């Protein structure tokens, strides 16, 4: 067998092997299954796993932007009953650090407990002003809370009314952004504290910060204890990857006790910091948020990109905060049958010590038109006020994290497409094999033409010993 024949056979064998193996891998999805199994094994909340440290201290930065509605017609509202007019002011931006403290494995390593601690650092360059200087006129939440608590007692309500008058405490208050966010000693609460044990400091984010004030000339550090929202126990995902990051208990409870139905009191999903691998677009993801004292769900909306990284955008549908008439499943969120708000609002008084606090999406987005019309200055727009979660990642991602994710995605893509690469290489070898086969056939035909012979004489010669022979000579080209 000639060297050319060996090469031809070798190419044919390699070509056939690559095509058979490649097509077999594509059909059986061995590489895809390998990647999925590897992800299920690696993405677990146990010591030594790839995600454990980043789960405890997430590297991508989280920015919290706070906006306030400044009431501009307090006197007209109080004296004439005019429609309140508000002007949005913000953002006041803070870098939020989310860490999980006192992390420990429980139940033989199947679950992990931790406290979610948040600290905040003010970012002047991303804010509209100085929170220590800028004043906001808004409702006096402590005063409203006290009056709501005493509305059933004429004597106590009258006494509180006199206290408010003497203290100059009204239904509205003007405070700095810092005071409204991080807390201030309220004179009415201090007066009540002399009779009853109550918290005398009020702030929307009281006990939940480390504040960093920065001016153009200097900076002042004001470190305070970061707060946590109680102990969480999470599933590690080791038993079932679908349970990765799911909340098992909060403050030792598997169910809440704020609401009036088992469904409303259910603790579902994760805390929003982690989601199971291999997320599907058709899934409904659940998030338990202590700020709302309930679980909410989100549904896939569209594919997006964050710094070139593909992600799924999930958003809460209108049904999450729909009225009980529109969504009967929400009937359990009514504080009482008479205190059941319409679509777009959720009264969170049960978990706010009875304070008359109502939650909604910004500008009453996805809410009933009557709420938007009741306050001048509301202008709900989807592009500005929609709540959404991009997975992955869930927040604004820094360039270093984006580069790492790009590298991981490249590895996953290469491994997942490895069978296609084999098929492609097999196709190239097939093309080479066909070319070599054609050239071999053409060369054989040419050789047959070049080695033709003709008899030397028309007469056969006899050899007494060896028999008859015929003399041959190569054909010559006919001359012109």
If you had to describe this structure to a student in words, what would you say it looks like?
The protein has 480 residues and is of the alpha+beta class. 31% of the residues lie in helices and 26% in strands. It has a domain at 61-236. It has helices at residues 3-28, 30-42, 52-56, 74-80, 141-149, 154-167, 177-182, 187-193, 369-374, 382-385, 399-416, 418-450; strands at residues 62-71, 86-106, 111-122, 135-139, 172-176, 184-185, 201-202, 211-214, 219-222, 227-235, 247-250, 284-289, 294-306, 309-315, 345-347, 358-360, 389-391, 453-455, 461-463, 467-469, 472-474. The strands form eight sheets. Strands 1-2-3-10-11 form a five-stranded antiparallel sheet, with no helix packed on it. A four-stranded antiparallel sheet has the order 12-13-14-17. It has a two-stranded antiparallel ribbon with strand order 4-5. Strand 2 and strand 3 (111-122) form a beta hairpin. Helix 1 (3-28) packs antiparallel against helix 12 (418-450). The chain is elongated, with a radius of gyration of 38 Å. The chain starts with a helix and ends in a 6-residue tail after the last strand.
Low-confidence stretches: 209-225
The 3D shape can be described as elongated
Q: Could you tell me how far the N terminus lies from the C terminus, measured between alpha carbons in angstroms?
A: 41 Å
Helix proportion? 25-40%
Label the structural class. alpha+beta
Alpha-carbon Rg, integer: 38 Å
DSSP E strands, number: 21
Mean pLDDT: 80
Strand order of the largest sheet: 1-2-3-10-11
Structure annotation, total helices: 12
Main location: membrane
Protein name: Lysosome membrane protein 2-like
Subcellular location: Membrane
GO molecular function: scavenger receptor activity
